[in-house]
Design a protein that fits this description.
- InterPro entries: MetalloPept_cat_dom_sf, Peptidase_M13, Peptidase_M13_C, Peptidase_M13_dom_2, Peptidase_M13_N.
- Residues 41-417 form the Peptidase M13 N-terminal domain.
- Keywords: Hydrolase, Metal-binding, Metalloprotease, Protease, Signal, Zinc.
- This is M13 family metallopeptidase.
- There is one protein chain.
- 51% of the residues lie in helices and 6% in strands.
- The protein has 673 residues and is mainly α.
- The protein has a domain at 31-56 and 366-417 and 461-668: Collagenase (Catalytic Domain) (3-Layer(aba) Sandwich), CATH 3.40.390.
- The relative contact order is 0.16.
- A hairpin with a 4-residue loop joins β7 and β8 (478-482).
- The protein has helices at residues 44-55, 67-88, 96-108, 110-116, 122-129, 134-143, 181-184, 189-208, 214-231, 250-256, 262-268, 282-294, 297-311, 318-331, 341-365, 368-390, 397-408, 433-449, 497-514, 535-553, 569-589, 603-613, 621-630, 636-644, 648-654, and strands at residues 64-66, 152-158, 166-172, 247-249, 276-279, 411-415, 471-473, 478-482, 617-619.
- It is globular.
- α1 (44-55) packs across α22, α9 (214-231) crosses α13 and α22 (603-613) runs antiparallel to α24.
Length: 673
């Protein structure tokens, strides 16, 4: 798991397929997919995407479709070409190329997986059957870290107050439904349907595990998960870096949660001897530990069997795969058909050997000139941000000085890491799909576990080059842009600067802004979690962001379901601030000249149209419901319009006036960075 505080993931990663983004027209403006009947002054999102929305059906194997999904498809197709080439050829024994090819080929061989049936997973189920005590249950939870979902989980990353050191964090987990709300909101009809589907799935899992009374077993598993859900912190609480940073000595943890032998748990997980750890949600972690002692061991065994089968569903026989899709794909996400097996295989091998594939990917698909142009864009955006901080009316000189210090220390990573990950310890066997999955998960966990207590390696990346995403990491004060996002519609080497600044420029600004959103702003330039603000400045900042919370709280994507303004605040700040900074950077790039009109649009108009068309998306209701509960990002149309409506440049570019649906008076516009 990546650190919760890697705040800047630009979009929740969705493993979906689709066609490539429409070829750019008029230097980046995708005019055929605009809706000429809609004025940007009334709805910027529909103006730039209405034609596409009216003509596009979400493909059957998708729960959502749009820019990010389309780019993910492009990246997946490129990875597919790489891995299939390696799978068909003869590679040196033990090489990364051989491991990639064998891993992918084994996953795609569903005939062999079906012939093996449930035999490959039986040793795991028998091990669970053999658990005789809470002590053995505790060790089992440690032994399967990285392989199977457990009641609580662990990761190792930079300590929030000592970011040069790695620390183990224990956090809440253990739910089969997407979030605690699915268990706790009893009056929500949509979540009620999800609960019904989950109980049916649990009954199938119990049957596959050999339980004679599968229906009763499902009820017992669900009852246990509901108890776990009652302990979980909310998604909004989990966004608070101060509340979720709770270092504790292992000795004190043993005293405060004596139900478990924590030292034995950590040892079983392969962790080095540690004096202290951090609890992300102390009450939840300790509460789950108490449940492990209080709930009958027989119920825990049922639960663990269900979690094990669900974790390995993709490499188990067809009946198991079909059951998993019926729940995860259809009931929770609204998909009508499964993703093609090759694309699932790409996701699996990316997870197991991602940087080994990435090394080949960038050699084929990321030319040096793209990186050089991106470096120039980033430098321009950082310069614009510096000027913007100087011009803030609500911030005092003392806090501005601290903000400028932080900005000056940003580290930028573009395209791919300088040092590639070592996969020499990962054992991949031909024809062993489940074993490969298990060993890959455990190898990655042990690689991370070994870092506990050691210095942080600032060269490491949290995403592979072929990932269509970007992020800001506050503990390292770094912005990271993988190669796969640096393509149209975000970044086009041949496109007009206005569109590039509105798209990739706003992406860059978005990630820079995460260092100054409600979470990232609590870390200083060295990545230390500390308050570097004056009290008055923080109060002024909170007052401004409260208005943004209210704005997004008012949006209602599904009847009766609103955007959660507090959950999405960080991303909404980054969208708004990123767009503002990108616009300033674009204006700087003109050096006082006026951009020529293209396609009937001024340079300033093209900037905002480029921004809007990059958020093109459609989603099924089930998926949208899930995202509204768990995703810190707002739906695409509200990202496009919600930031633009507060931007002075937008209103100037399109001449909005009273009566236009996107008109907002100057005094009511929200301006942060």
């Amino acid at each position: 798991m990546k650190s919760t505080f890697k705040l800047g993931a630009l979009a929740l990663m969705i493993q979906l397929a689709g066609a490539a983004f429409a070829a750019p027209h008029n230097h980046g403006l995708d005019l055929p997919n605009y809706d000429p009947a809609v004025r940007a002054q009334d709805d910027l999102f529909l103006a730039a995407n209405g034609g596409w929305l009216s003509r596009t059906e979400i493909p059957a194997d998708k729960s959502s479709f749009g820019t990010f999904v389309q780019l993910r498809d492009m990246s997946d197709a490129r990875v597919r070409a790489i891995v299939e080439e390696l799978a068909k050829g003869k590679q040196p024994a033990g090489s990364n190329e051989a491991k990639i090819g064998a891993y992918y080929a084994a996953y795609l061989d569903t005939a062999a997986i079906d012939r093996a049936g449930f035999k490959p997973v039986q040793p795991h189920l028998k091990a669970i059957d053999g658990l005789k005590s809470v002590a053995e249950l505790t060790r089992w939870v440690g032994q399967v870290q990285g392989e199977v979902a457990t009641p609580f989980a662990m990761y190792v990353d930079a300590d929030a107050k000592k970011p040069q050191e790695n620390r183990l964090t224990v956090y809440q987990a253990g739910l089969g439904l997407p979030d605690r709300d699915y268990y706790l909101l009893k009056d929500d009809a949509r979540m009620g349907e999800a609960r019904k589907a989950y109980l049916a799935y649990l009954q199938q899992l119990a049957g596959f595990a050999g339980e004679k009374n599968a229906a009763a077993a499902a009820q017992r598993i669900y009852a246990l998960e509901e108890k776990i859900a009652q302990l979980h912190w909310s998604t909004v609480e989990n966004r608070d870096p101060v509340k979720t940073y709770n270092p504790i000595s292992v000795a004190d943890l043993a005293q405060q949660a004596p139900e478990l032998d924590w030292a034995a748990l950590f040892q079983a997980a392969g962790l080095p001897t540690m004096e202290s750890v951090s609890l992300m949600q102390p009450s939840a972690v300790k509460g789950i530990a108490k449940l492990m002692a209080d709930v009958p061991l027989a119920d825990w065994k049922l639960y663990l069997k269900a979690r094990t089968l669900d974790s390995y569903a993709g490499v188990l026989p067809k009946a198991m795969r079909d059951a998993a899709f019926a729940f995860h794909g259809q009931a929770l996400s609204g998909q009508k058909a499964e993703l093609p097996r090759w694309q699932k295989g790409v996701a699996e091998v990316n997870g197991a050997l991602g940087e080994a594939i990435g090394q080949i990917y960038v050699a084929r698909h990321f030319p040096p000139e793209a990186k050089a142009r991106m470096e120039k864009l980033v430098a321009n955006l950082l310069a614009a941000y510096k000027d913007s901080i100087d011009g803030l009316s609500w911030m005092s000189p003392a806090t501005k000085l601290q903000a400028q210090d932080k900005l000056s220390k940003y580290m930028t990573k573009i395209g791919y890491p300088d040092t590639w990950r070592d996969y020499s310890r990962l054992v991949v066997k031909a024809g062993d799909a489940l074993g490969n999955n298990q060993r890959a998960g455990r190898a990655e966990w042990l690689r991370m576990a070994a870092k506990a207590g050691k210095p942080v390696d600032r060269k490491e990346w949290g995403m592979t080059p072929q990932t269509v995403n970007a992020y800001y990491n506050p503990s390292q004060n770094e912005i990271v842009f993988p190669a796969a996002i640096l393509q149209p519609p975000f970044f086009d080497m041949n496109a007009d600067d206005a569109v590039n600044y509105g798209a990739i420029g706003a992406v860059i600004g978005h990630e820079i802004s995460h260092g100054f959103d409600d979470q990232g702003s609590q870390f200083d330039g060295d990545g230390v979690l500390r308050n570097w603000w004056t009290q008055e400045d923080r109060q002024a900042f909170d007052a401004i962001t409260a208005k943004l919370v209210s704005q997004f709280d008012s949006y209602e994507p599904i009847p009766g379901k609103h955007v959660n303004g507090k959950l999405t605040l960080g991303e909404n700040i980054a969208d708004l601030s990123g767009l503002q900074i990108a616009y300033k950077a674009y204006q700087r790039s003109l050096a006082g000249q006026t951009a020529p009109a293209i396609g009937g649009y001024t340079g300033e108009q093209r900037f905002f149209l480029g921004w809007s068309q990059s958020w093109r998306v459609k989603a099924r209701e089930q998926r949208l419901l899930q995202l509204l509960v768990i995703d810190p990002h707002s739906p695409g149309e509200y990202r496009a319009n919600g930031a633009a409506i507060n931007h002075d440049g937008f209103h100037q570019a399109f001449g909005t006036k009273q009566g236009d649906k996107m008109f907002k008076s100057s005094e009511d516009r929200i301006r942060i960075w």
